TrEMBL record:
Limits of the Rieske domain: 48-155
Organism the protein comes from: Novosphingobium sediminicola
Pfam families, per the entry: Rieske, Ring_hydroxyl_A
Protein's name according to its UniProt entry: Phenylpropionate dioxygenase-like ring-hydroxylating dioxygenase large terminal subunit
InterPro entries attached to this UniProt entry: Rieske_2Fe-2S, Rieske_2Fe-2S_sf, Ring_hydroxy_dOase_asu_C_dom, Rng_hydr_dOase-A
Length: 440
């Protein structure tokens, strides 16, 4: 299969050739594939472990369970963060069972071994009973690499992977103007789902599904193909700019009244939608002007550093292999899937929403409704299908997962058949092939 490049949609500066590997079903269903990912993919990438905001004092910790692995990140006395495997060096017991908290000593629940926040063994029962003498001060927790970016802590199991910022390139620079450092995670939602983790990765690597799965977005996000810009980077990360504050050009909204909810969005910035009847596409420029003029007095001081495009459009960044950051100037959505510990046909879906800490703002609008503007205002884990919302748009994305997994199990499925605009999916799977076969 060959995908024809369409240069009007792929940025000439950031385009990557694809080979045309067949995207076979086994990667979504087979335990062998899952084992190869476990051995050759997951150790070689950076993982978003949690929020710096939860690690304020020495001994504060957060835990991130990933597949069969579990990692703890701990604030040190020198203000750095260190990461350790959550496994006791004595006989392997999981050390930390909570998601976050404070421990002056990391203490194992089995025989009571105690470790200082830097992972050094500090106290054991019967210290003189060890053949080589008291192990305190000599035995350490097994550590991993740990780095921070913006409000986040990341960990990585491999010493040869580039440092976090280099690994993220160019997205760490492209996202800098949003001023994410002190943004607040207000939602931490997750669910167990009955499909392989890559089903939703593929979904986030294309916008082909917007008109069919998210028709409601068409009145304020221009999902028209010629107007959407895709960028693909050598690293495997990619991004997509979708024009916001403008209805789709797939259908003719532009010569009519300003559609909802764009009319209310315009009014919120002091713009009368009636003035834009017949040329609704021009509202976007009016919002840019209004945000520049009114933003600072409303507390949006970070607007000053943003480009016009950043002020009104959606910047959807997909980091290889499993992290999506969807940026708008007033909200960051973190969306990702992680593998189930043992079952290739299951995954864990996570949706975090971060908001800027606007002075005086007590409540913010999120994909599950209004919530207080404070860290983890809503934290919940559910089973997909039990009727608990993961956010309106995320629910729509998840709605296809189970049936797609079922269809991929069919003998009749011969491999994906992609249009050019889904080239990011093709690239994702080719890079994945390289990783699982040990070529990266
Ligand atoms: S396994 Fe941790 S103290 Fe024994
Ligand atoms: Fe979607």
């Amino acid at each position: 299969m060959t995908l024809q490049d369409n240069k009007s949609r792929y940025s000439p500066e950031f385009d990557v050739a694809v080979r045309g590997d067949t995207i076979t079903a086994d990667r979504y269903i087979s335990p062998e594939w899952m084992k190869k990912e476990h051995a050759n993919l997951w150790p070689k990438v950076w993982h978003l472990g949690g929020m710096l905001a939860e690690l304020e004092e020495e001994g504060d910790f957060i835990r991130h369970d990933f597949g069969k692995e579990s990692v703890i990140m701990v604030r040190q006395g020198d203000d750095t963060i260190r990461a350790f495997y959550n496994s006791c060096p004595h006989r392997g017991n999981r050390l930390v069972l909570g998601d976050a908290g404070h421990m002056p000593r990391i203490t194992c629940g089995y025989h009571g071994w105690q470790f200082t926040p830097d992972g050094v063994l500090a106290k054991v029962q019967d210290p003189d009973d060890f053949p080589d003498g008291n192990p305190c001060g000599k035995v350490h927790l097994s550590s991993l690499r740990c780095e921070t970016w913006g409000p986040f802590v990341f960990w990585c199991m491999d010493d040869d992977v580039p440092p976090l910022r280099e690994w993220m390139a160019p997205l760490q620079d492209r996202l800098a103007n949003y001023g994410l450092d002190n943004w607040v995670r207000v939602l931490k939602l997750s669910c167990d789902a009955d499909f392989n983790w890559k089903i939703i990765r593929d979904n986030f690597n294309e916008s082909y599904h917007l008109p069919t799965i998210h028709p409601e977005l068409a009145t304020f996000i221009n999902d028209g193909l010629p107007t959407t810009l895709f960028e693909m980077y050598e690293s495997g990360h990619n991004s997509m700019w979708m024009i916001g504050h403008q209805a789709t050009t797939r259908t003719d909204y532009h010569s009519a009244e300003v559609p909802a909810p764009l009319d209310d969005i315009a009014r919120a910035w002091g713009i009368d939608p009636a003035d834009y009847k017949g040329h609704t596409g021009d509202i976007r420029a009016a919002v840019i002007e209004a945000k520049r003029r009114l933003g600072p007095e409303r507390g949006y001081t970070m607007y000053a550093d943003m480009t016009d495009q950043q002020l009104v459009d959606y910047f959807h960044c997909t980091l290889f292999p499993n992290l999506t950051l969807t940026m708008s100037p007033e909200q960051l959505q973190v969306l990702r899937t992680e593998p189930h510990p043992t079952d290739p046909e299951k995954c864990i879906f996570q949706h975090w929403v971060l908001m800027p800490p606007i002075k005086g703002m007590k409540e913010v609008a999120t994909p599950i409704g209004n919530v207080p503007l404070r860290h983890d205002a809503v934290v919940r884990h559910s089973k997909y299908g039990d009727g608990v919302s993961l956010g309106f748009v995320a629910d729509q994305d998840l709605s296809i997962g189970t049936t797609q997994q079922q269809g991929l199990n069919s003998r009749g499925f011969k491999g994906c058949f992609l249009p050019a605009q889904e080239k990011r999916i093709q690239r994702f799977h080719e890079l994945l092939n390289d990783y699982v076969e040990g070529r990266r």
